[in-house]
Request: fold
Amino acid sequence: MNPNLCYKKCIVITTINTPTEAIKKYSAIKDFDLIIVADKKTNTESYNNINCIFFNIRETKRRISRFFRISTIQPLF
Reply:
């Protein structure tokens, strides 16, 4: 995970696959952060050398649960 990414403009991809040519091209787009959300079957190590923010299953569940805790305290609408 690159700590210098800005989260202002993002490309979000969910996948079970290893990095494709398209994912590699998305990771090279300037001014955009690439977020990969893994599936249970995703080979997580295959994303170690890709410039992206990688969420494995554990991280995804943690972030989702955090979102729902916040949304129960502060309604979204």
About this structure: Residues 1 and 46 are 13 Å apart (CA to CA). The first strand starts at residue 10 and ends at 15. DSSP finds two helices and three strands in the chain.
